[in-house]
Amino acid sequence: MALSKRLFERIGSRKTQLALAIRVTVAAAAAYAIATALHLLLPLWAVLTSLIVTQMSVGRSLKATRDYMLGTVGGAVYGGAIAVLLPYSSEVGLLAPLVLTVAPLAFVAAIHPSLSAATVTAVIVLLVPTMHHADPLASAIDRVSEVSVGAITGLVISFLVLPSRAVSQIRVGAERLLELIADAFTELLAGLTRGRDNDALHRIQDGIGAAIVGLNATGAEAERERAAYLSSGPDTGPLLRTILRLRHDVVMIGRATVVPLPDELQARLAGPLAEVSAAIALFLRAAAAALRSGDGAPPIQPVHLALQRYADEVAAVRRDGLVRGQPGDMVERFFALGFSLEQMHQNLGDLDRVVGEWSDKSLNGRARRAGQAG
């Protein structure tokens, strides 16, 4: 029972991946059945195409279908034209048409990777007639028909079978990214009083970089869904830009916290810095959870109060002359830290607004207004 429970819990934590596996399986089976029913020459290509276009989200499936169909049609036309204009009667005679087919299309695919299917399609159109003694034009038509069946089947399955919208994946990706930023921020400010754990910090920073790349890709997929009226979520741009600015704030704070503060400054600022660290990290994690759940933005007032108390203590430290006499690089980092925290304060205010726009209440209100306008 315990083993079964752990197994179901592990499967439950991978619901998105499990749904993709089910969609891919259904798409492959449906593409094969349809291609066989239509008596297509090679159902294999319909099945392979359905596997390629059935992606993690509907937006990604749209892009994969568009790119693969453009490459297939272009490759079929070009490969068919080469076969017609340069007929061959032997294997040696096939070499020149093959070179003229592959070289230009490989060059185009190197410039536009989304058209990489063109090279494969053109080669198939050129070579299949030699195996089946078919006409090049018929080979091109067969290839486009097989790919069309697979692409349409995969796209329809992506819409109908456990569909996954990129907007929902944005929530998951943004949640993870905000939590990583909170971890990095906490580690950086702690380094001002106890020194930094650079190994841990590098792991966090690497995770942030990879998460940003993934989130930007998912954002592009979400915008494709919005453009095709497949989702009614908010514009992803403000959320992605705000998170990217917070990432830049963490980088700037990292440069300002390379070494701990001098002892006399630590004695005065350790308490306010700890309060700032706790308040901002708590807000970031609460905002992450709110994005995932659709709840409203968490209260940001503790962040305002903590940063104000830190600013008041910094002003007192300067009045007491504790900054004078410090090494130049230390003074520079000290003021850079204050500037970076102020910038982060502004960006956290933007995050507070954006999370509110992503709340279920805000989205439902927007949908009602759109319905009334319609």
**Biggest sheet, open or closed, and with what strands and sense?**
none
C-alpha Rg (nearest Å): 29 Å
The average pLDDT is: 85
Q: Tell me, briefly, the overall form.
A: elongated
Helix percentage range:
over 70%
* Beta-strand content: under 5%
Low-confidence segments, given as residue ranges, are 366-374
Q: What structural class do you assign from the helix and strand content? A: mainly alpha
Number of E-type strands: 0
CA(first)-CA(last) distance:
53 Å
Description of the structure:
By secondary structure, this protein is mainly α. Helices cover 81% and strands 0% of the residues. The chain contains 14 helices and no strands. It has helices spanning 2-12, 15-37, 43-53, 58-85, 95-111, 117-132, 136-160, 166-194, 198-227, 237-256, 263-293, 301-319, 328-357, 360-373. Residues 366-374 have low confidence and may be disordered.
